[in-house]
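Technical note accompanying the year-one report. For the benefit of new consortium partners, we illustrate the data format agreed upon in the data management plan: each record pairs a sequence with a C-alpha cell string. No post-processing was applied to the example shown here.
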Amino acid sequence: AVKEDLSASSMMRILITGGTGTVGTAIIREYQAEHDFAVISRNEAQHAAFRQEFPDVQCFLGSIENISQLLAAYQKFRPEVVVHAAAVKHIDLAEKNPSQACRVNVLGSLNVIEASHRCGVQTTIGISTDKACNASVYGYTKFLMERAFLEANSYTIRFACCRFGNVAKSSGSVIPKWQLMAAKGEPLQVTDPTRCRLMISQPDAARLVMRAIREA
C-alpha cells in the first residue's frame, strides 16, 4: 500500500480520542479551519461544553476501553489520522486506582492500535508525558503505551508518540491553582523551592502533535 502524503496543504480527517479534553480542544482550536475533526470521549459533561465551542465537530460518546464503541467511531468517521489523547492523567488518582489506570492507559491504547490496524488508518499519534520515565503508576502506563505504539509501527501504517510536559491551564495544572491563590492574596504553594516544572502552552502542544503527524 502506498501511503498518501499528509502534507501541510492537504485537508486531513482527524479523530481524537479523549478529544473533549485540553489537548484535543487545543488541536481543534488551532487547526479547525484546515482539517476535518471528530472526537470520541466518555465524559458527557465535557461533550456538552465542547459542542458549544465546536458545533461542527462530530462527537462520539464512548470509551477506548470498549473496542466496539471505538470501532464504531472509526467506521463512521473513517479517519486518515488518529490522535490518541484519552487517558487517566492525574498521578494521585492513578496511584489509588492502578487497575483502572491500566485498563484505560494500557488496554485502551491496545484497542486504539487494533482499531487503527483494522480500519487502515495511515497515522496514529499517541500522547505521552515526561512522567513516562518516572516510577509512578501513571508513568509506567504511559511508558507501556509508548512501547506498544513503537511495536505497532510499520512502513505502511505509522504509529508515533509525543511526550509532553505539563500543558498550561490543563485539568489538574498548577497554574489555575496558583491564580486562585493569588486572587485571594495567599502565598503560592510549591512542592519544593528547588524543583523545576516543564511547562508547554496549549498552542505549542497542538503544533507538536501536528508536526508529529506530518513527520511520522
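Partners are asked to follow this layout when depositing records. The mean pLDDT is 89.
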